[in-house]
Amino acid sequence: MRAVEERRDELIALTQDLIRLPTLNPPGDNYLEICEYLAARLKKRGFATELIRAFGAMGDSDKYPRWNMVARIEGAHTGQCVHFNSHTDVVEVGRNWTFDPFGGVLSDGKIYGRGACDMKGGLAASIIAVEAFLEICPDFAGAIEISGTADEESGGLGGVAYLAVQGYFSPQRVQHVIIPEPLNKDRICLGHRGVWWGEIETFGEIAHGSMPFLGDCAVRHMGAVLEEFEATLFPALAQKRTDMPVVPEGAKQSTMNINAIHGGAGEPAPDYTGLASACVPDSCRMVIDRRFLMEEDIAEVKDEISAVLETVKAKRPNFRYELREVHSVIPTMTDRDSPIVASVASAIRDVLGVEPQYVVSPGTYDQKHIARIGRLKNCIAYGPGILDLAHKPDEYVGVEDMLDSAKVMGHALVGLLAGDD
Ligand SMILES: [Zn+2]
Hints:
The protein is of the alpha/beta class. The chain is 33% helix and 24% strand. The chain has 10 helices and 16 strands. The strands form 4 sheets. It has a 6-stranded mixed β-sheet with strand order 1-2-6-3-7-15. Strand 4 and strand 5 form a beta hairpin. The two termini are 22 Å apart.
């Protein structure tokens, strides 16, 4: 705890430096710069560092290369490897900021900026925790890895997923993973719900808008789908409850969002000042985002949507549709008695003097790739910051929260790697 406390100024400076590198995604700016910054720092502390570009991954291009950094330090004895994984990308700034989103301003014990809590503060806290641990336990057993990875905010294919395919996250190489996402310093996040994104398209027939009876309106067909969703699907989803400790409470059930509907004439070009033409829409598309539970099967989730569409088809003449899958992620949850959970839980008790809360995230994060591709189950999210501030204006991370969580992470490292010899 002393070793972390002594690094307070360094922790602030590191967080500010990271925020001042605007790693906006999309498009994926400054990925190489932030990786080089991290590698230079960790090299000085004795880490072997690698910069890895996710060649050919979705989103990777010569203009916007997807760079990742992995650093590793070996202990004096053989043992297990603890890996801290943070994403380096941040989402767009948006409006209504009162602070410079890339200024890293320190005010009243908080550091402001896009990515401050999600998750450059967590990245900085984990680096300080590891550096403090190395000072206290230079002859530890095992190994420690720190990675900074791309594209978490856009699915992680050019980041953790790519590294997992390359073997960086595998049970042979890594035994414990902590992802310092902003979940509050007394909470351990065991995993997340699943995702099924689909696109429904209904078809009609184009005709003159003054004689709609000569055509067939795809938007009205989609209206019938929406009505069926309201009448049967949404009430059914509200009945499906989970034993996963999902927060907030509203996400303890199956949910579905309608992300978008597009039908009929497209938006006119910005320089066009006339009226649109009068046509019956011959196509309407709807994107749905269904979040599902450990207790549900992904095949059932798809079948449920198909069943709604078939019901509408049976009732409605000329109803034609297509259902396409856009994206899917299965739910994942680490056991409460797994070693990483037990170590961080006892560190929270020792450092903060409170009982840890065990939670599950409503949305997904990079744990999905570590679990599915890496087949590494011993993984949690634990880090400083308030999740509600993520992606919002005047995002910040509290300095005390970062210090506290760094102490917890350092303490957990002592439990996992200090050993007796
Ligand atoms: Zn994040």
